[in-house]
Fold this protein.
Amino acid sequence: MKKLAFAITAIALLLFCVVLINNVLFVKKVPQSALSSSLYTPNSIINSDTSIQSKLSVQRITAANAADLIKTGPDAIGGIGDWLLTNGTICAVITDVPHENEFSSRGGVLTDLGFCDRKDDHFTTMQDILDADRKRPMDTTRIETKVDDSSVSIITFAQRDAVEVETRYRLTNSAETQLFISKKVTLVASEASAFNLYTTFWFNYHSMQPFVYSTKDTKHTRGFKNVDFVSRGSSAIPVAAIAADVVILPGPDDAEVGISYGWQLKSAIRRSGDDAIYLPSFILSDEEMTIRAILPKHFYLGDGSNLGVLQLPQIPLLNLSEGDSLETEEIIYVGQSADVASITNQILADAPLVSGQLKDPSTALHVNYLDGTPLTFVRPQSDGSFKFRAKLGAYQLIHRGSAGRVVNQSLNVDTEDMDLGVLELPLATTLKLPRNEAMRLIFVGRDGTENPDFNMALTDFTVHDGESDVPAKKLSQVFLAGIESDQSQVDIAFV
């Protein structure tokens, strides 16, 4: 018995030492000098429709002004009663409290986002949920507005059980294409396991292809290589979860007006009294949705860089204490092209600018590090011109076009700015299509030849299903309506 007691004591001491060393090595406290800028600070609230300047405003959408204020685009659903936030460049719509969302009978969520002067909205909707449990959405109770010297804000207040969250959506004149989001999540009463994960769902429904990106560590950048977790359930979490801070969703390549969204977590902090520590967070992303999960406490074992078999059993032990808060600072960047570069160019604003011309403007560029890790994905303007930002270093350019055409070349960014000149691909065999007649044309390869793929996304997007990386479905058919705007030709193969 004495030996058993001694062994148990030794194991307990060992575990204590491991946890202590883990806290010393991996739990990062927030410097006091950074608290005022990185943590949420309450401000006076004004309940009114008001504006600072003609371009910077927050308004309630009413029957009288709906024709002027309602955002337009394929996914625009904001309407009368909702709230419009604008700086004259981008417009954001927050739904009114009675307007239900995906998992909640309440509104108060971001539902439309795009450039004010374009019919480009492809933003679906977001919902905060406790423990990724669709039965535990944060239900909005009220909405208020705020104006200060340089910005306008919409503030929502939501509650679920003993948890309250105050979310501020803020636009400024100085950052014209960025929507700032601040959240303060507080445990207001002592309640066992109020939550162990604070999650935000961004519903996608196959409308856009996520590009997972890390500004802190390239090994946490997946690019367009996503991992299915919606259909596979919790068993996929250790593989699907990645400690990236950015997810970028380019709009569809065939959209009438291009747009892209980049959702970045700038900081996640737990505040307990005078102490504040940085918290681990993870992204899960596939065709159905993107989830950002933030833990309210650091792991006892692990540095927060992965969510593996040692970390998952710890999650039920991680929670807030009464009066503690979890505070986040986020940004949603909005880009004017259906690519990744219109977002990474904003994130890497101080990096050298690489420009050039693609001879065929229907082609696209992948920019990777030499080890294959993606940096960005570039679509040119209608005249073929392109630009992207990259830090000094060596990269690989992958130029993709229709009919499976690919050209690789190396790139060394060693100056402040550089021009790559004109880039072109080999010619492809082109088939002219019939005109002035409605029809469906199906193309089939003969004698072992693969069916052609007319999908012009050119992203090389895949979703790992647990066994292999599954690419997007081939598009081997063309639909013609018999009108002037019908597609006139398709590229079949290399010349």
Observations:
- The chain is about 10% helix and 40% strand.
- The chain has four domains: 1-27, 32-335, 348-423, 428-494.
